[in-house]
Amino acid sequence: xxxxxxxxxxxxxxxxQEVTSSFGPLIRFMLETSERIMTQIFxxxxxxxxxxIAFAFLAALLVTRPLGRLIERAWPLEDEDTMFLASAFRxxxxxxxxxxxxxxxxxxxxxxxKAGIGNDLIRVIASLLQAWIFIRLxxxxxxxxxxxxxxxxxxxxxxxxxxxxxxxxxxxxLDSFAFNLGEARISVYMALKGIAILVMLIWLxxxxxxxxxxxxxxxxxxxxxxxxxxxxxxRIALLFIAIMLAxxxxxxxxTALAVFxxxxxxGIGFGLQAIFSNLVAGIILLIEETVKVGDFVELESGLSxxxxxxxxxxxxxxxxxxxxxxxxxSEFINNRVTNLTLRDAxxxxxxxxxxxxxxxxxxxxxAALEASAAVPHMLTGPKAKPPQVWLVNFGDSSLDxxxxxxxxxxxxxxxxxxxxxxxxAIETALAKYGIEIPFPQRDLHIRSGSLPINLTAETKPSExx
Length: 465
Fold this sequence. Notes:
It comes from Parasulfitobacter algicola. This protein is of the alpha+beta class. It is about 60% helix and about 10% strand.
């Protein structure tokens, strides 16, 4: 017995017919809506309403500027919180024109209703303006401009469709475009709904994590690394919950995530190995506290700078040239790291220099100690230690000394500038006492034989002499 197997469209005509049948209700709805609007506009009542809308628009233009100046003179900007007041003033100033226009339109609605003339078009425009004003006011409380624009756009679309009585038809049309994912039916409407819910939940998660981070910042009994670890953990957990709730809202079976988790595990084993390694390394750094925010570190690669942030994937280091560099966290775990401020910020430095053979050693010590006193980087106070001058080597061309100095905490983070300042001061002090800084030289001794040397000197008679 032959079985009948249904297949999809095969020819171009069948595909076009199926697409047309899918978009047919949408096209008919848009044509009927536009025809109804155009009929209403070009009717006698429609012409009256368009004239009233234009008149209210011109009146709002004439009144906006003087009213804005009046608000500017009366606005209190002498308080301490001038930043908030200035921001609120800019918002109010931008809303003066649409508020006056909406007010004029609502007056026109009342007048048309009393005269027995249709006012649907005016009422729709006034409602749209009123909705935009309230949405704009609400979005100002969201300080992030990206989130503010996102919320304003979504709210404005929903409000406009509701006012135009197109929300339910639009939902029905969007819900008609769907596909099956396993046993779940996913439509365009459900996808947009899930995206909107996800955006809202991510924003709420950001607010909660920022609040937690602020509260943790006031906890003096916790170290900065522990506070950062807790804040990052809360943020990741909230984002994960937001994604799960958004997926559940569109009807995705969360039990199917078991397969996804297995795929993630395989991905970590292959392509995501480096990312997962940096993630674990960042958690280790925050727990061990071997590298903290504010430490001055030198990496095995030669990079040195101050640690500004320890994130989940990478650590932000700012060099003394004010260059921000992101270093993967695994580099702090797998390679050697010199932390100059791990336990305390008191560091001893050695500044090498050389003088000619035969120079008085005591005179060299005097000059070097004067040089150390002339540089303001030396540690002072109760934990101060005096500088020292060491004779460390008998070089080929010089007596090699080292000026040994303990540095202040703020100078530890500027090693190159400190070394340059001490070299400058040492050269000045040696020149003051007439101490020679030698350069490499070789003596030639002839054991036997003779070597003729001709000395010639060319002189020119001076002109006019």
